[in-house]
């Protein structure tokens, strides 16, 4: 039990009288040296002191060591990362690219959680027992059976909209459902097809909330994985192919668990991943992720930090020496709506899509539009769709988007 000067009286009143250590003058290095063996080997907190008020309960609950290093590159941070077991979770938030890069280079992943409270409580709530009988019992990947509703003679530009940042449980368990924001509680939700990136680890962190989201999804809502799987990471920065395969299996296990918990009558999370990489994309890295057909996603939507090289193109990921192809399609957003890194405004996007190629047998006839949640909301997407020319464009769900892409363009 951690006791501060202001809570000494409470501890004593509860019968806690033995003082094991006074760490008020200790450095983080001294604390780590003394108690290293007692800290968790699966969870690490990298959290600014101001935000520890929100997440201290989880750090104590999980016996995690907590520090703050904006880049996780200082010697103490490196020691803490090296001590963790494979596929461990680093919670908190810091300087995004540097923070996630350091975590990835040790084969771990980040869970953005800088202002969450009560996670130990949420983790011990199961979904409503009344629905348990109807749930899928097998931990096996749910097949995506969506079909393309048109053939190659229907010449329109095919469009899908995808929200970013669903890996963040700060957002998922925060303003995601706040009626004052234009997201899940928006009056416009359900009017047009939207793909929502989402955190599959919520099956463990807050299964009751996950149950509610799956139950309340409209016919036009789709949940997909990421970024970049069951945790935010850069697979091109992972230390080895074995580490990448472990992460792929970890993600697949989480997605399968989410699918097994899907309430009766609800649509499962799609086995599609929005993945972020630091460098330019190559099939060689991704082939290691999709090598196991039991764990492979049906599609990977890649975002690259340094420069966008895919630019909406699409193909089946090659395996081995390139002579064999996987069943996983890789593509990327063609355009992005964001006030910080977007390439178009809403007006420009409408004009661009209305004049885009309409040949469904070419990948040029397809566009995924990434939508940064911190910049735009559901009503913004609905407003854009209303202005698109229905004789030249067709807006579909992300699963039908890939079904049409495979059927008509990729063969």
Radius of gyration: 23 Å
Strand content: 15-25%
Overall spatial form: globular
Head-to-tail CA distance between termini: 61 Å
**How many distinct helices?**
14
Helix proportion of residues, in percent?
25-40%
Number-wise, the strands total 14
What low-confidence regions span 5 or more consecutive residues with pLDDT below 50? 133-139
Mean pLDDT equals 92
Largest β sheet strand count, sense and barrel closure: 6 strands, parallel
Structural class: alpha/beta
Order of helices and strands: HHEHEHEHEHEHEHHEHEHEEEEHEHEH
Question: What can you tell me about this protein's structure?
Answer:
30% of the residues lie in helices and 17% in strands. The model is unreliable at 133-139 (pLDDT under 50). It has 14 helices and 14 strands. Helix 12 (346-354) runs parallel beside helix 13 (378-387). It has helices at residues 8-13, 28-35, 52-61, 75-83, 96-104, 119-122, 169-172, 202-205, 207-216, 241-260, 283-289, 346-354, 378-387, 398-410; strands spanning 43-46, 65-67, 89-92, 109-112, 157-163, 194-198, 221-225, 272-277, 299-304, 315-319, 324-331, 335-337, 366-371, 393-395. Strands 5, 6, 7, 12, 13 and 14 form a 6-stranded parallel beta sheet that branches. It has a 4-stranded parallel beta sheet with strand order 2-1-3-4, with helices on one face. A 4-stranded mixed beta sheet has the order 8-9-11-10. The relative contact order is 0.13. The protein is an alpha/beta fold.
